[in-house]
Design a protein that fits this description.
By secondary structure, the protein is an alpha/beta fold. It folds into three domains: 71 residues; 79 residues, Type II secretion system, protein E, N-terminal domain (GMP Synthetase, Chain A, domain 3); 435 residues, Spore Coat Polysaccharide Biosynthesis Protein SpsA, Chain A (Alpha-Beta Complex). The protein contains 26 helices and eleven strands. The strands form two sheets. The protein has an eight-stranded mixed sheet, sandwiched between helices. Helix 16 packs across helix 23. The longest helix has 29 residues. The protein starts with a helix and ends in a 37-residue tail after the last helix.
Length: 633
């Protein structure tokens, strides 16, 4: 029955039990000979168990593969959901290790412990450790969904609690005191009002000096970032052999999603990464009836699975990511958002870059762009802003050796480093920027990679304000947490990165909060007398004015460079309207700062899919269609 494969010299290289599995599937006509030959070739080429290829590339039902595996190995199929495992055995082995290794100690019978697995090869590799922990052991077969489901039922509440506190308290914002923040805000406001009553000219001079200084240093940082990229050329990295590719887990948080099959799954299907090495986890909240109902109507391929997060004290994206992390299979952990359309070769770029990177490179950040740029003025401005940020400023910060505040998606981490840091701060609403800072404090670096993920730009004014308010609130909390002990932050980062943090975080917050002051300077070219002209000396007033207009010209230049790198220089005319776009950020800043004292951990989710997309993402099919099983006998 296997002569057609023997002729190609593949069967002798197959493990004996994989050969038995293949014979069983062929005998039941579950696979035809052509499919079997391709499956064997893929397993050997990728150096993975044959069962992984059958489940992920060939869409065979997991229960079916489990039955054939059990027959090939002369063992039982056991359902740990219907017959829960012994909690003491799981605790002895460790719930996280059960998920990481795909091994679940189940029961003791006549002095022998039955250990369930989805892959006999993993059981064989761990057998010595299992015997050291339990004595005599024997193997049982189950499916991945049932193994993870059993662990989630038994240990899920513990994982949920740990997801909220895995970052040390000293590095987390969970002990942020909103009442105290409100008291500080009231006290500062009282000081400002008193100052204004006693010495209004002094207050105006102080604000003007601060505004001019912040504007100058933030603009110089952008210019330095742009200059650092003028001679930067992407390094040509040697492609990896397929056997050297790592398993990559992509975490995709979902909330109130109605169109998973028509959008998300279509975009993910364009990925060219080997399915046997790809682990996509859709992470959803237990009380999210909308998304759960959508998934109930959706058939997920074998390389995509759902992870349900139990309720907790907060409901945030970072908490959901923390809960899902122990369930991940990969040595590299990535994050996408539900509306993302990643480049088809993105994961190959990630694998190649991590393989050739220095040991201290713990994180890779991809480029974000928008597929609905042409929807309206707001989406065009959003596109211009992100072109400058992700293609000029962030790469420049990395080249200058400064802290890189991460974006919330198209992020990739070395799993060991991520777990060592405690993963994400569950209470921080800009968990990405906070994690970038914590990585830098531990001596790790982030690098930008030349791969693009297309997203949906926010095209409505008030949702834009609410989204930006959440970001600025998170920036403020992140800055406050890490500046609890400025001397320690200085020791951890060094002077250069410490100064960079002040410019990036405090400077950004100051710019948005002082936006009305800057915006008012546009009265001058309109021939309107400026109110500050009578309060400041002529020299001080015109210094601030010239600094503002010089900063606008330099910012426009950086934006044009970003558009050129993005291949969207046709938007240059819209870049001239950004002075009208950014004042929306002042409203966002005031809303975000107010929420520091009212609801600091509230996650105001942005609703996507509301505005019509001006450009649909290009969908490229996988290089080979996934074969369908002949039967499910």
């Amino acid at each position: 029955m296997l002569d057609f494969i023997t002729d190609s010299a593949l069967v002798p290289r197959l493990p004996e039990r994989d050969t038995a599995l293949l014979q069983s599937l062929l005998a039941k006509r579950t696979l035809d000979q052509t499919q079997a030959g391709r499956a064997v070739a893929s397993a050997l080429r990728l150096d993975v168990p044959l069962s992984d290829v059958l489940l992920r590339d060939y869409a065979l039902p997991a229960d079916l593969v489990a039955r054939h595996l059990a027959k090939a190995h002369a063992v039982q199929v056991i359902d740990p959901v219907r017959h829960p495992p012994d909690a003491a055995l799981v605790a002895r082995w460790g719930a996280r290790d059960c998920l990481r290794l795909g091994l679940l100690p189940s029961r003791v019978s006549q002095g022998t412990v039955t250990v369930l697995t989805t892959c006999p090869a993993r059981f064989a590799l761990a057998r010595a450790d299992l015997e050291q922990s339990f004595g005599a052991v024997r193997m049982g077969i189950t499916t991945e969904a049932k193994l993870t489901g059993a662990v989630a039922t038994l240990h899920g509440p513990i994982f949920a609690a740990e997801a909220e506190t895995c970052v040390p308290a000293a590095e987390s914002c969970r002990n942020w005191n909103a009442r105290r923040a409100a008291g500080v805000a009231v006290a500062l406001l009282a000081v400002v009002l008193a100052w204004a009553a006693v010495n209004p000219s002094g207050l105006i001079v102080a604000f003007s000096l601060w505004a001019t200084g912040v504007l100058a240093v933030t603009t110089l940082l952008k210019v330095a970032a742009a200059i650092s990229g003028l001679r930067a050329a992407p390094e040509a990295l040697r492609p990896l052999a397929e056997a050297d590719l790592p398993v990559i887990t992509m975490l995709v948080p979902l909330y109130r999603e109605k169109a998973i099959a028509s959008h998300l799954l279509v975009r993910l299907a364009a990925l060219r990464y080997p399915r046997a090495l790809l682990d996509v986890c859709l992470v959803l909240e237990e009380d999210d009836a909308t998304t759960r109902a959508t998934l109930a109507r959706t058939t997920l391929p074998g390389w995509i699975r759902a992870i349900v997060v139990p309720p907790g004290q907060v409901k945030t994206k970072p908490r959901a990511l923390n809960y899902a992390l122990p369930f991940a299979r990969g040595s590299i952990i990535g994050v996408w958002d539900a509306e993302d359309a990643p480049a088809p070769d993105q994961l190959h770029v990630v694998a190649r870059h991590f393989t050739h990177a220095a040991p201290h490179v713990a994180c890779l950040q991809g480029v974000l762009d928008y597929y609905n740029t042409g929807t309206n003025w707001l989406t065009r401005c959003f596109t211009i802003e992100y072109a400058a940020w992700f293609r000029v400023v962030l790469p420049g910060l990395a080249r200058l050796g400064l802290v890189v505040p991460l974006g919330g998606t198209t992020l990739f981490f070395q799993r060991a480093v991520l777990e060592d840091l405690g993963a994400w701060d569950a209470h921080n609403v800009t968990e990405d920027a906070d994690l970038g800072l914590r990585l830098a404090r531990r001596g790790y670096t982030t690098e930008l990679i030349p791969t693009v993920t297309m997203e949906e730009a926010n095209g409505r004014a008030w949702p834009w304000v609410k989204q930006r308010a959440r970001w600025l609130k998170g920036y403020a909390i992140t800055y406050g947490v890490h500046m609890r002990n400025p001397a320690r932050l200085l020791r951890d980062l060094g002077l250069w990165q410490f100064i960079g943090v002040q410019v990036l975080f405090l400077g950004t917050l100051s710019l948005f909060a002082l936006m009305p002051l800057f915006w008012s300077l546009w009265l001058i070219p309109l021939g309107v007398a400026h109110p500050l002209h009578g309060w400041l000396s002529a020299g001080a007033f015109w210094t601030m004015t010239y600094a503002f207009f010089a900063a606008e010209v330099l910012a426009l230049t950086v934006n044009l460079i970003g558009l050129h790198k993005a291949g969207k220089l046709h938007l240059w005319g819209w870049a001239l309207t950004l002075p009208v776009y950014f004042p929306l950020g002042a409203l966002a800043a005031y809303r975000g700062l107010a929420e520091l004292a009212t609801r600091p951990f509230y996650w105001d989710k942005t609703t996507h899919g509301v505005v019509l997309t001006g450009l649909k993402p290009q969908i490229i099919p996988p290089p080979q269609p996934l074969p369908r099983p002949v039967s499910t006998a």
